[in-house]
Amino acid sequence: MSDNNYREMLVLAQQKAQEDYDKAIVSLSGGGLGVSIMFIKEIVAKNTPKLMEAALASWVFWAISIVAVVVSYYLSYVAMETAIDQFDANETPSQPGGIAARFTILLNFVSGGCFVLGIVFFVFFVKNNVGI
Known about the structure:
This protein has helices spanning 3-42, 52-88, 98-130. By secondary structure, it is an all-alpha fold. The chain has one domain.
């Protein structure tokens, strides 16, 4: 396998991994929202919920996670357009894709971090309402 073929294979694998990551974050965050709402409706609603702020925080973090992924989709497109323009102009920038590429990377961290924080707050809420 030539160096170019190997590099192309790595780029495709990286793109696939990023797509899978984004899909997982959106699916899991959306699922977390749905499960938490059903949990409150079916389990907690029979009593007075404790620390409802923790549930609200989990929803906010999961919503931010989803928004971060959606915005990163758009910025990824912008970064690719910029990288193509840079290539066509025979430029070799230190950051291919420009600032949109940097923000895409940042949003990937934000989406994952907010997803985890959503889990932490929801587990805290469940623990205080079910007595685990």
